[in-house]
Design a protein that fits this description.
The structure is a single chain. With 313 residues, the chain is an all-alpha fold. It contains nine helices and no strands. Helix 1 packs antiparallel against helix 4, helix 2 runs antiparallel to helix 3 and helix 5 packs antiparallel against helix 9. The two termini are 25 Å apart.
């Protein structure tokens, strides 16, 4: 549940970004100096706001979008903290579950603090990129911890499966996919900069000005998708996968294809906001699926310690 909730937060964060609601609350942790955001400009006390902030830019819709995003983040933070406490209680002797659970709790606390830095520096591209990367690391850790707990509770789940020694392929693809996400944030940052410097230009004129970085992102993305397709095909052909791995590989191939189609759609129909959100969110789903396959293949490697029922006793 915590993993699914975190994915929802990543989607919501993307929605906040493309809607322009990132500075819907100019301060942190309060919003316009209030614990319950204002709905009218008359409720705002300028003395409680950052120096130089223009109160006339207040937009109640954007303010509440950002504040709901923060509230969801707080709820998920408590969910991750609860998961860490359960790991301390039930998996104290199993570091493969305990360590990532505790690491996720520490990272989500850091992420909350770093969110205030993102607001303080008014959504600087590097800060937004780091904020997203931390979220992707957190989701990866959550998936890893959940899988290790699953292996302990269901030790027979992979007993009949046979895999080639290709976990390093999946790890490389995981890294490449994260790099592709970073490139995507760079493309978006360049476009946002062009919107400020060329406010009268059209969407297609901005995209033409950002052509070089856009081509790099697109070519690298096609390369990642092709590599994923090849690796998934080889794994399906050369292994006897469990239902979990088979479904993950097939889903990964489908998502990679959808990413290529979404990327081309963004170029040809002018970067519609909702497609941008799904483009980023699908990439985060790919990263999660890659972590699932990597964890299973790594666990199945000859030098990996097998999970036995005696370990869970």
């Amino acid at each position: 549940m915590t993993t699914f909730a975190t994915y929802f937060l990543i989607f919501l964060g993307g929605l906040v970004r493309v809607s322009g609601a990132g500075l819907g609350c100019p301060d942190w942790p309060r919003c316009y100096g209030l614990w319950i955001p204002p709905t009218d400009i008359s409720q705002i006390d300028p003395a409680k706001l950052p120096v130089g902030f223009d109160v006339s830019s207040f937009n109640p819709v954007l303010t509440w979008i950002e504040y709901i995003n923060r509230l969801v983040g707080v709820v998920i933070g408590f969910l991750i903290l609860g998961m860490a406490m359960l790991a301390l209680k039930n998996f104290r002797k199993h570091p493969k579950v305990l360590v990532p659970s505790l690491a996720a709790a520490v990272l989500v606390a850091f992420q909350g603090w770093f969110g205030s830095i993102v607001v303080k520096y008014q959504l600087k591209p590097i800060a937004v990129t780091v904020h997203l990367l931390i979220a992707l690391v957190i989701i990866s850790i959550l998936i890893y911890a959940a899988l290790q707990a699953y292996f302990l509770e269901q030790p027979e789940s992979e007993q009949k499966a046979v895999y080639p020694k290709k976990s390093h392929w999946i790890l490389g693809l995981w890294v490449a996919t994260i790099l592709q996400v970073v490139m995507g944030t760079v493309v978006r940052a360049v476009l946002e900069g062009l919107r400020e410097t060329m406010p009268l230009a059209t969407e297609f004129e901005w995209m033409e000005s950002a052509r070089a970085v856009g081509i790099l992102h697109g070519v690298f993305g096609v390369g990642v998708a092709a590599s994923a397709g090849f690796i998934c095909y080889r794994l399906l052909k050369e292994s006897v996968p469990s239902p979990l791995v088979r479904r993950s590989l097939l889903a990964m191939m489908a998502l990679m294809l959808s990413q290529v189609l979404l990327g081309h759609a963004l170029v040809f129909i002018g970067m519609p906001a909702l497609l941008q959100v799904f483009h980023q969110w699908v990439a985060s789903l790919q990263i999660g699926l890659l972590l699932i396959v990597y964890s299973v293949l790594k666990q199945a490697a000859p030098n990996a310690q097998p999970y036995l029922k005696s370990q869970t006793a």
